[in-house]
Each structure stands twice: as C-alpha cells, then as structure tokens.
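User: Fold this, then the next.

Assistant: Folding the first:
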Amino acid sequence: MKLVSQIFIIFGIIAGSEFIVNLLQISIPSNILGMLILLALLIFKVIKPQQIMEFSMFLFKNMALFIIPAALSIMSNFDLIKGSFIPFFLITIFSTALVFGFTGKAVSLFQKPQAPAEEEETK
C-alpha cells in the first residue's frame, strides 16, 4: 500500500503540472514544471523524501529503460540528422557537460556538510 501512495504522489504531481501547462498555456514543458513543483514541495517539507523514496529508487534503478526509446528514435531517424551530424554531436556533448556541471553544483548546494570522521590514534 505504501508503494501505491508513492505512485499517486508522483503521478499526481505530473498530472498537476500537465494541467497547469494546458490551463495557463505556458511554454515550459510539463515535466520540467513537475520537477520544479516536486522540488518546491520537498524544500518546503510538504512532502518528506521518505514518502516517495521507494518509488523514486525504482525509477532511478530502471532509468535505462526510459532512455532506450529515445536512442531507438535517433537510430531509426538517422537519415534525417546525418547531414547535420557534427553540430548535433557537438550540441549533445556541450549540453551533457552543462547538465553534469549544473547537477554537480546543485548537489553541492543542497547536500548537508558532513563532519569529518575522527581518526583513531593507534600507538
């Protein structure tokens, strides 16, 4: 039952963000808005991380399954992008580096500092 409530929380946020995008006709993708809403709910402690941890870990562990359709689409439509392969490749590398950089910075900002472990003196 715990997993079902976690699924409802995540999909409720997704549905809510989709509703907001369609209602307000804003040009932000609903999945991005959903992540921002989830982030705000976590920051303001409306949702505790434990309330969505199990389903989130399931999604994280199976992330490769979500990437396969995009990769197959690129492979099946390669004829459309082969004329601009170099710019496409460079943009992909650049955007990946940006994502890595911003993710690392975000993690370092939100991660709580940990006290260094005390070293045991052996004599």
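Now the next one, as you asked:
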Amino acid sequence: MNYLLSHLTANERPIAKTRKSACIFLREVLVLIILGGVIAGFFFGMKWPLASKEMYMVYGGCGLVFLVFLSLNIASFISTALLVTTHKFMYKEDIVAIKVFDTQLQNIDAIEVDYKTIFHRMFNYGHITISTRNTKQTFKNMSHPDLFSARLNKQSAKVSDSRTRRVNVTFGIGPNGGAKRVARPPVNVKAVTKKN
C-alpha cells in the first residue's frame, strides 16, 4: 500500500482501499487437516517403527507441500492492494516484479462484484472486475468487494459529474440552419447584508 500512496500527486487523497482477503488461507488450513490426517493414519495404522526412512520422506513431503502453498499465498496477501483516490483507481501486485494498473476514474465503464460460492459471501470476499474503455481487469479474492465497489462507484460518479458541470456551452440552431452559441441569461446576485 505504501508504494501506491507514494505515487499520489499533491492534490490527491485516498478514498478507499482493500487487499486480498485472509480467507485465501482456508486452502492451507484444509491441506494441513488432510496432511495431518494422512500422517495420523500412518502413525496409528503402521505396525513397524515410525522412525523409518520412508516415514521421514512422507513427513518431509507433506511439510514441503504445505510450505509451498503457504508461501505463495502469504506473498500474494502481502503484495496485492487496490486503492481509489480522488482522481484515480490503482492496483499493485509485486511478488517478484511490480505489476501496476492505474486508470483515471472517468475511464471506468463498469464495476462488477462476484461472489463465487456461499462461503465467499459468508466470509465477505470475492472478485472485483473493472471494465475500462480498453481493458477488463479481474482482481480475485479481495476483501469487502461490495463496500469497495460502492466507494469506487460513488467517487467515479463525483468525478464524472464535476466534469460535465464544467462544460456550460450550449448550442441552438440559428435562422440560417447553422449552429450558433446561445448566451446564458445573466444571473442577478444580491449581496446579503446582516442587519442589526
């Protein structure tokens, strides 16, 4: 997250942020339970001593599989972040090399939140898909995707609304068929003074 915050301009401030959900470690818990069951099965079901060479290989293989899954998810959990600022949407992932996705909020066309299973909804994590004019990016297993997308939608609407309010030129059809600029009527503003 510090990487994204360090790349903000002077007039930007963060509006919403999210990262990978800690529920991505549920797979490791399940693998640990299964591997623990396999080891317990060997422990209680074997007739020969457990200090044999084969058993050390089984224990080492189970531990290695668990550590590989765990280290990949820890790296993904630590390195992935999404950020909405007053003007931009930013994404960063830096497991080995830094991958950054950055777009202006007015370029976002659609935001989709997808809960794949009932467990995703129960633990409040899911996939966020953001469609821009040129690309479609999917961010998997993000924490609180509905809250994040609501804040992103709100800020994107604010940016779009402020851009359309700045355009005040209106055109009408003139008597000779050409377009002419229609002047806006002057607004009378009276000064309000406080009477004692």
